[in-house]
Design brief:
By secondary structure, this protein is an alpha+beta fold. Strands 1-4-5-8 form a 4-stranded mixed β-sheet, covered by helices on one side. Strands 2-3-7-6 form a 4-stranded antiparallel β-sheet, with no helix packed on it. The protein has a two-stranded antiparallel ribbon with strand order 9-10. Helix 5 packs antiparallel against helix 6, helix 5 packs antiparallel against helix 7 and helix 7 runs antiparallel to helix 8.
Length: about 375
């Protein structure tokens, strides 16, 4: 088993890193954070032009047809710069739903637009706090019309189309909804990371198109979210690594009592703990990437493990980065808070850390029972 990326994949990673160094400095992140835009449109268009958005989408639908390993290395680079773009919602989730269960007509209608960035997708499942499950969904579809409220919907203010979970006569199903259609109203929600918009979306008899098998919605949600968990884990380890680098660099340049603060034992221990958590998360993410790329039976457990480890690592590194910077680390002028904000936003994306920990325990128990 080879748990390293190929030379071509590493070259792709370096190309994107150079592009993002030029097009997505911290000032770009701050512009979205402080301004009225839902995302950086120029950056998103540039990513589409490079083929990042269509990396895993088949060529027949406007993508590059490369694969999900390539998407993993690209996700890490987006995470390093806290890219204020809706890639995770549109590509990790909605594009995956379409590729997994969409009809030929649905794929032709939306996948090329998602690949070239002319349309943005969002996943609209959640309706209330707590662990997501079929019992927590009350939105309903009758006669092809959807009614209900979803919140929060990540990138919901930027999206053109949404994958919505709703009850129907067959049980829980997924539906494609054009967010520009009649009967759809959106309201922006305040969040810890305005670099990723959150919305409250109300559906009032809005037209909805079945996605996949009627009554098979929850099975599809679990399958797609496992894939998204691996990709988000790479975003998180990208952010964790960059936060660690920021803390290390500051510890080497900051002088206190005539010495670099990095020479003090307390700072050394803090940096060492950050390194250990980031390295452990990377190890789990690499294993999950292997399971994802090979469609291995280990994917459900590997994805949950990667998700938990990466969430812990990013939050740990983002918090300790602020601590290493001391009092100045808490100020708006430093970039530390940008990583802290994104670490918290990603910690809640596609389910909280607690829900993924519970899911991991359940899956490991089932795995043990099958092996017994």
């Amino acid at each position: 088993m080879n748990l390293d990326f190929s030379d071509d994949q590493k070259q792709l990673k370096e190309q994107l890193r150079r592009f993002l160094a030029d097009k997505c400095p911290p000032t770009t992140v701050r512009a979205v954070l402080e301004g009225p835009e839902t995302h950086d449109r120029a950056l998103y268009a540039g990513l589409a032009e490079m083929g990042v958005l269509g990396a895993a989408i088949p060529e027949e639908f406007g993508g590059l047809g490369l694969g999900r390993l390539e998407l993993c290395v690209l996700a890490e680079e987006l995470g390093r710069v806290l890219a204020p773009v809706p890639v995770s919602s549109s590509i990790y989730l909605v594009a995956e739903y379409l590729m997994a269960a969409g009809t030929e007509a649905q794929k032709k209608a939306w996948l090329p637009k998602l690949a070239d960035g002319s349309a943005i997708g969002a996943e609209a499942l959640v309706e209330k706090a707590g662990r997501l499950g079929p019992d927590g969904i009350s939105a309903r579809v009758s006669g092809g019309r959807l009614s209900g409220v979803k919140l929060p919907v990540t990138d919901g203010m930027a999206a053109d189309v949404a994958v919505v979970a709703a009850k129907d006569d067959a049980g829980l199903s997924l539906y494609l909804v054009d967010l520009g259609a009649a009967g759809v109203e959106r309201e922006a929600l305040a969040s810890v990371d305005p670099g990723r918009s959150q919305a409250r979306i109300c559906f009032d008899n809005a037209p909805a198109e079945l996605l996949g098998r009627a009554g098979g919605g929850w099975e599809l949600v679990e399958a797609v979210r496992d894939k998204a968990a691996v990709l988000l884990a790479f975003e998180q380890i990208g952010g964790a690594d960059r936060a660690l680098e920021m803390a290390r660099d500051y510890a080497l340049e900051r002088i206190a009592f005539g010495r670099q603060i990095g020479s003090f034992q307390a700072i050394k221990h803090m940096l060492a703990d950050m390194y250990v958590s980031a390295t452990l998360a990377r190890s789990n993410a690499y294993y999950a990437a292997w399971a994802l790329s090979t469609d291995a039976a280990e994917l459900p457990v590997a994805a949950a493990t990667a998700r938990v480890a990466a969430t812990q690592a990013f939050q740990h590194c983002a918090k300790n980065n602020i601590q290493v910077h001391g009092g100045m680390g808490f100020t708006w002028a430093f970039d530390c808070h940008l990583f802290y904000r994104r670490s918290n936003q990603l910690a809640l994306a596609i389910g909280s850390q607690t829900s993924w920990e519970d899911l991991l325990i359940e899956r490991m128990r089932r795995q043990d029972q099958r092996a017994a």
